[in-house]
UniProtKB/TrEMBL annotation:
Binding site for [4Fe-4S] cluster 2: 260, 263, 277
The organism of origin for this protein: Paenibacillus oenotherae
UniProt-recorded name of the protein: GTP 3',8-cyclase
Binding site for S-adenosyl-L-methionine: 32, 73, 124, 195
GO molecular function, one term: GTP 3',8'-cyclase activity
Subunit structure: Monomer and homodimer.
Keywords tagged on the record: 4Fe-4S, GTP-binding, Iron, Iron-sulfur, Lyase, Metal-binding, Molybdenum cofactor biosynthesis, Nucleotide-binding, S-adenosyl-L-methionine
Reactions catalysed, as given in the entry: GTP + AH2 + S-adenosyl-L-methionine = (8S)-3',8-cyclo-7,8-dihydroguanosine 5'-triphosphate + 5'-deoxyadenosine + L-methionine + A + H(+)
Family: Belongs to the radical SAM superfamily. MoaA family.
Domain Radical SAM core stretches: 10-224
Binding-site residues for GTP, renumbered to this chain: 19, 69, 100, 161, 265-267
Entry cofactors: [4Fe-4S] cluster
Gene responsible for this protein: moaA
Top-level EC class: lyase
Function summary: Catalyzes the cyclization of GTP to (8S)-3',8-cyclo-7,8-dihydroguanosine 5'-triphosphate.
């Protein structure tokens, strides 16, 4: 049963998790995240300051938010991110602060971020092959990402997760490589279905593939795997461990088998809006209410009141009619 001080929506879902985009800018141009022509970024004066983010989180923590995830764009393009981490870690009620990053700039900052209070790291890595990684990211250097992974391990982050967006005809032939990586490394590989965030064109439909393919690959290779129930901070992933493996792999399938019934998250965009659902267009701007904790709390409650029971990405895949308007923001403008 919900208790006083909790954020509960009209479907009884308790929300204790806030994803915070600290910038809409990124040093990469991933094919599923930005259009080829790039993005028009928000001017600096429209991006929340660290002090404003901390003020919003103070209100959120008083309402029951316990877990934070720092996202972007790419959060490490913003200077002094460890300063924000320290500010958030000092807020009463905040128990866990994670970071999602493309890893390019991570190696020099891993120790500093951990010392500031960062709990966990997720690194986006859609290919282990240098040429293919450069193609998917439109110019990225995979060796820098792998250096960021090693630096995070040396800094003592645990668990470390690698996020792999699975795309048909692009990186599906690397599933075996990622699976075998979990045998030797104490990391969590998370395969994620390609989502139509901000675009529902033919390239998305052509690139989409359900994650049953990962388990089929295990069977084809003769890899004995079983559900792994001890994985910390696993969120919506269904986790598995190959027999004798040091790490695990997980499947996140928002399109083919959505997990909306257990959704516990809200999103704060870099320009100060609360999004109750990643897919839909509804959002509620906080900027005009800064300095007024009760008004900020009311915006959180209003956002929760509008949260739908589910998104309809499967209908988008089938080309069907949706019940409301999907977001026009691209993934880089929301933070995933």
């Amino acid at each position: 049963m919900p208790v006083a001080g909790q954020l509960v929506d009209s479907y009884g879902r308790v929300h204790d998790y806030l994803r915070i985009a600290v910038t809409d800018r990124c040093n990469l141009r991933c094919v599923y995240c930005m259009p080829a022509e790039g993005m028009t970024f928000e001017p600096d004066h429209r991006i929340l300051s660290y002090e404003e983010i901390a003020e919003i989180v103070e209100t959120a923590a008083a309402l029951g938010i316990r877990k934070l995830r720092i996202t972007g764009g790419e959060p490490l393009v913003r200077k002094g991110l460890d300063t924000l981490i320290a500010m958030l870690a000092a807020i009463p009620g905040i128990e866990d602060i994670a970071l999602t990053t493309n890893g390019i700039f991570l190696a020099p900052f891993a120790d500093r971020l951990r010392a500031a209070g960062l709990t966990r790291v997720n690194i986006s890595l859609d290919s282990l092959r240098a040429d293919r990684f450069a193609m998917i990211t439109r110019g990225g250097d995979v060796s820098k990402v792998l250096a960021g992974l090693r630096a995070s391990q040396l800094a003592g982050f645990s668990p470390i997760k690698l996020n792999v967006v699975l795309m048909k005809g692009i990186n599906d032939d690397e599933v075996e490589d990622f699976l075998r990586m979990t045998i030797e490394e104490p990391i969590q590989i998370r395969f994620i279905e390609y989502m139509p965030i901000g675009h529902e064109d033919n390239s998305w439909r052509a690139g989409y593939m359900p994650l049953d393919y990962v388990l089929e690959t295990c069977r084809r290779l003769g890899l004995d795997c079983e559900p792994a129930k001890e994985v910390y901070g696993n969120g919506p992933a269904q986790s598995y461990r190959i027999a004798g493996a040091a790490g695990t792999f997980g499947l996140i399938h928002p399109v083919s088998d959505h997990f909306c019934g257990s959704c516990n998250r809200l999103r704060l965009t870099a320009d100060g809006s609360i999004k109750p659902c990643l897919y839909w267009s509804d959002e509620y701007n906080m900027r005009g209410h800064l300095g007024n904790p009760s008004a900020l709390a009311a915006i959180f409650q209003r956002a929760l009141g509008s949260k739908p029971e589910t998104h309809e990405m499967a209908r988008a895949l089938a080309g069907g009619q949706r019940s409301q308007a999907p977001t026009a923001r691209r993934m880089s403008q929301i933070g995933g």
